[in-house]
Amino acid sequence: MTWDIVIHRGLLIDGSGSQGTIADIALAAGRIAAIGPSLPREASKVIDAEGLAVTPGFIDIKTHSDFVLPINPKAESKVRQGVTTEIIGHCGFSVAPVLPGKTQLLADYLSGGAPWLPFREMGFSEYLDTFPAVAVNTGMLVGHNTLRLMVMGLEDRAPTKTELEQMIALLEDGLRAGALGMSSGLFTPPGSFATPDEMMAFCAVLKRHNAAYFTHIRDEANRVMEAVDEAIDIARACGIHVQIVHLKCSGVDNWGKVEQVLDKIAAARSEGCDIDCDAYPYAAGANPLKNLLPPWVQIGGNEAMLARLRLPETRARIRAELADHGLNNWGRIPSWGAVQISISPHRPETAGQTVAALARAQSCDPIDQISDHLITDNGATRVLITSISEDDIRTIVRSPTALVGSDGNCVATYAVVNQGLPHPRFYGTFPRILGRYVRDERLIPLEQAVYKMTGGPAKALKMCDRGLLKVGYRADIAIFDPNDFRDEATYESPHRYPSGGRTTVIVNGTVVVENARHTGATPGTVLRRATNGSVG
Ligand SMILES: [Zn+2]
User: Fold this and answer.
1) Judgement on whether residues 186 and 68 belong to the same structural domain of the protein
2) CA of 26 to the centre of ligand 1 (A)
3) How far is the CA of 113 from the centre of ligand 1 (A)?
4) Of 18, 130, 347, 522, which alpha carbon lies 20 to 30 A from 71's?
5) Which residues span the domain enclosing 367?
6) Does the structure show a pLDDT above 90 at 459?
7) Phi, psi of 4 (to 5 degrees)
8) For residue 16, is it within any domain?
């Protein structure tokens, strides 16, 4: 018997939450072939894992890497964290389907998140079929905002019967092609223009296809409780899996509410709802700048927004509404010092500066500063917003069930994806949990943290053969030194890979990272949902 790879004497943490044990693991033909206390070293490659943890590859259940994978297929900032699978198309934003004549509309709409991606007309099945070879496995979602944009543009109204049927037809195309489900972005136009009833209509379709619903809830700030209730209502009424993504309670008025939110979710689960949540371990969020403004600013699309932002009366109305209840979706911030430019295509020199500092330097009001900045950038400015409480982050990290999702893109320390100052979560989410919160602060045991990155998300996603170290499962493996695996990326200097010279990552049986060096391999596959709902 000869195997492809034997990993020798590692601390095997199987992803179920069970305690780790020292053992060997053998891989063959892309799958886990054997696990035992002392396997023969009969393999083309033997990896000495003495002193290292060996876990299932991390499943990043919440990312926007669809905006970068086609131009950065090696996925460095993710695979170097141990990530082997990314779920993409979140927050209502998917790069397909694109109907004839609608390419520029979608490109403009997504420019704040995907400034470098070439867009093209395509249906969802073509998107899956032609997705390029990349280093990680990918599972795709159909974005509700994208569907609405294709059929209704940025109109603030309910769809007609025909429009709803058109959107549902597009969703079903995607589901038949193998999309894992639908994502919503109810915080920003045009998702914010959809009523809970409209979302129920889509979720009834998801139920018919055994597909899941992933939601960026309607409000993560002052009305976060009501927004969580809306998600739970869908889980209860439709009987589908609901994933509340990047859970947070944003804005100083809402700090401390996370405990209540987790209790609400736990209560729903105990009454039988299939609902999960995930979060990233950082106090700052990231978003296109335009999404901080009241939703009416974006009605009619990018050109209409830019024209509106030129008017003093628009700026006065924005100023009044923000003074009244804080930023859209982010709530009240202590000052404009909490908002920092991260990517500015036309004013790149402003990356890293706060809105407060820029307004001061230009002797203008912050609302004038951000309006002018958006106009200069054609709407594509991107910002970091520090609006989350550290205590709430710890509460989520400690929760045995709240999953880990980076909400980040795979980028790299070179080429076009090295531009600007992205959120450090792009580079640091997983090692930050393992280094800072598990090893340094001992908030939860290593095995439980690994579960929140592997077996937990695999269960939520109904994956049939990933997320556990189990014979017959796919050979997605992360190997790292638990005493030397920490995030190095900071807000000031985000383009830094994690520490750990012995990190090795295997995707579908192929080594992608070996001793912290990328091999150049791109063995990832597109995961598809079967008609019974299982994902493989
Ligand atoms: Zn989101």
Assistant:
1) yes
2) 38
3) 11
4) 347
5) 295-386
6) yes
7) -75, -45
8) yes
CA of 3 to the centre of ligand 1 (A): 42
Q: How many A from CA of 446 to the centre of ligand 1? A: 27
> Amino acid identity, residue 402?
A
Distance 242 CA to ligand 1 centre (A): 15
Q: Ligand 1: distance of its center to the CA of 322 in Å?
A: 20
Average pLDDT over residues 522-528: 98
CA of 90 to the centre of ligand 1 (A): 7
3-state secondary structure of 507: strand
Distance 227 CA to ligand 1 centre (A): 13
3-state helix, strand, coil in the chain (%, to 5): 35, 20, 45
Q: What is the whole-number distance in angstroms between the Cα of residue 183 and the centre of ligand 1?
A: 9
Distance of CA 492 from the midpoint of ligand 1 (Å): 23
Q: Which helix (H) or strand (E) holds 122?
A: none
267 lies in the same domain as 239:
yes
- CB within 8 Å of 263: residues ≥ 6 apart: none
Helical segments of 326-410, H only: 355-361, 366-376, 390-398
- CA of 58 relative to ligand 1 center, distance in Å: 20
CATH code where residue 63 lies: 3.20.20.140
Q: How confident is the model at residue 473 (pLDDT cuts 50, 70, 90)?
A: very high
Q: Does 392 share its domain with 381?
A: no
For residues 248 and 304, membership in a common domain is answered with no
**In contact, 219 and 226? CB cutoff 8 Å:** yes
Q: How does strand 242-244 pair with strand 275-279?
A: parallel
**What's the number of domains the chain is made of?**
3
Read off the pLDDT of residues 215-264 as tens digits, 9 standing for 90 and up: 999 999 999 999 999 999 999 999 999 999 999 999 999 999 999 999 99
| The one-letter amino acid at 259 | E
Boundary residue ending a domain (386, 407, 438): 386
Beta strands in 153-244 (DSSP E): 181-185, 212-216, 242-244
How many whole angstroms from 215 Cα to the centroid of ligand 1?
8
Strands (E) across 412-459 are located at none
**The whole model's pTM is what?**
0.95
Q: Is the pLDDT of residue 1 over 70?
A: no
